[in-house]
Write a structure and sequence with these properties.
- With 559 residues, the protein is mainly alpha-helical.
- The protein is built from 20 helices and six strands.
- It has helices at 18-24, 33-54, 73-83, 113-138, 145-169, 196-199, 207-235, 246-259, 263-282, 293-297, 327-331, 340-343, 349-352, 382-387, 406-409, 419-434, 436-450, 462-476, 484-490, 525-530; strands at 86-88, 310-315, 345-347, 413-418, 494-495, 511-512.
- The longest helix is centred in the middle third of the chain and has 29 residues, at 207-235.
- 53% of the residues are buried.
Amino acid sequence: MKKILFPLIAVTATMALTSCLEETFPESSTATEKQVGEVASGLQSAVNGIPSRMQQGYLVYGEQTHETDMAYPQFMIAQTEMLGDMYPLGSNSGYDWYRNYNTCDRIYGSTSYFSYLPYRTLYMFVKDANSLIAAVDTAATSTSDEMKYYAGVGYASRAFDYYMLTVLFEPKENIYTDVSSVKGLTVPIVTEKTSVDDARNNPRATHEEMMEFIISDLDNAEALMANYTEYCLSEKIAFNRTVPTLAAVYGLKAKAYLWDEKYDLAAEYARKAIDQVTAEMSVERITARPITEAQIDDVNTGFNTANQAWMWYIHYDAENMGNLCNFTGWMSGEADWGYSSLTFPGIDKSLYDKMNRTDIRKRLFLNPLKYDYYDYKTCRDASYINDAPAYLSLKFRCLGGDWETYSNGGAVDVPVMRIEEMLLIEAEGVGASQGVGAGVTLLNRFVKTYRDPAYNCTAGDLRSFQLAVLDQMRLEFWGEGNAFPNAKRLAPDVIQNYEGTNAPSDIFKVNCKGIKPWWNLVIPDSEESTNAAIKGNNNPDPTQTVIAPIAIGQFAPAR
C-alpha cells in the first residue's frame, strides 16, 4: 500500500471518470494490479479536483462576469456581510460587490446574481462529489481501503455542500416575508443516481429529509474512512487537510446537528472532531489547539497559512489565480491589488466594541486612536496605518508580507474549518443539553485561555448564553462566515444603525427584527425553468421589503 495520502495535484476541473473506469474494469475480466493502479491514480485526481474547484476564480461563468463568482470564498464574504459584521470603509465602497448581501437596495429575487451564483456554485460542487462517489462505486470490484477513503471524501464534501445549500435556502420565519407555504423546505437533492428525467421534477426536500440525507452521507464517509485513517495513524502518515478528513467529518456532523437543534449530538460530535484532529495532527508532531497570539500578530503568515488550528482548508495556486478574483485581494486590509485596496474592508463598530482591550483579536482591527492605542504590526509602513480608516481589518495577511504582487501575496491557504468552531459548538451544545452553567464553563474556558483572560460570561438563561456564544462566533470567524448559520438559527435581531455607527452610508443602516429577510435566499429562475417541482414552491422575494435607513432605536416595520 502506498504511504502517501493523495498528495495534492493541481487540477482545474473534475475528471470525467466513468468511461475510463468502465474500460479499466471490463465485465468479462478480473482487474489487474496495473488496472487498479490506474483507477487509484484517476481517483486521486478527482479527489484533488475538489479543493481546486473550491478556490477557482470565475468558477461559474469561466470569465469575468460577476465579481462574486469566487467559488467557496464567496460564501465566507457573503455570510459575513449578511450578518452586518463587515463594511466597505473606503471612499470607493461601490466596488464592494458583496455589499448587496448586507444592504437592502438591490434585487434579491430569482433573477439576481445573489440567487444564482450561490446556488449554481454549490450544485457544481455537488456534481464533483457525485462524480467521485460514482467513480468509486464503479471500481467496487477491487476497492481498497485507500479507494474507500476517496469515496469518503466525496460523501463528506457532498454533505458539506448540502449543508451550505440548506443554511442559505431553507427559509426561516421573519416579519418581512411570508414563508408559511415553504416553511421547512430546503433544496432538491441530486445524487450520482439522479437521472435527467428525475431532475426535471425534483421537489425541495423537507428539512427532515435533508438532515437525514446529510447525516447519512456523513455516516458513509465515517465508515469508508475508518480503516485507512487507522492505517495512516499507525504508520505516521500525514493527512491532506485540503480535503475533509475523518476529523472534518465529525465536525460536519457537529455543524449539521447544531442546525437541526440536536444539541446533545452537536456537542458529542464537536468533541469527537477535537479528539480526532488531535490524533491526526499528532502524526506530524503537531499539537492541535486554537490559533495563538503570535500567529495572530504574524504579518507574514497571519490567517493565510494552515496551522495547528485548521482542520480543513483550501489553497490558492499562484498559476491559477487572477488579481481580482481571489480571497486576499478582497479581504486583506494591506493588499494593494484587488478590490480591498478600494473598499477597505472593516468590522462593524458595535461588534468591535464587544471585545475587551485585553482580547488579542481586537488588534486585528484598527482602533480610531491608531498607534496611540496599539503598536500595530503591518507589512506596510506607519503612514499607511495612520491614513487608513478606523476599524479596517488586518486579519488576513498577504503571504510573506508581499502586499504588491498578487501572485505571491495572494497564494494563501484559506480556512474552511477550525478547531475553535468545534470548541464553541461544544459549549453551546453542552449548555443547551446539560445545563447553561456547564456551557458557560466551557465558553469561559475557551475565551479566557486563548483570547481574553478578562472575559467572563455570566449568562443565567439559555437564550442569553446562546447569544453570548454567537458573539464569540462572530468575532472569531469574522470574514470566514461560519457564524452565519448560528445567527440564522437563533434570529438575534440585526442592528446596524445606532449611535456612533460606522455604517458607511444610509443603505447599510438596516435594523431588522429577528433576521434580515434576504437571509432566505431565493432559488434562481434557471432552476424554476428546468425543474417543474419548484414552480410555486420558491422562497418569497425579499426585494424592497426593508427600506433604509431605519431610525435609530427602531426596527424596520413588518410587511
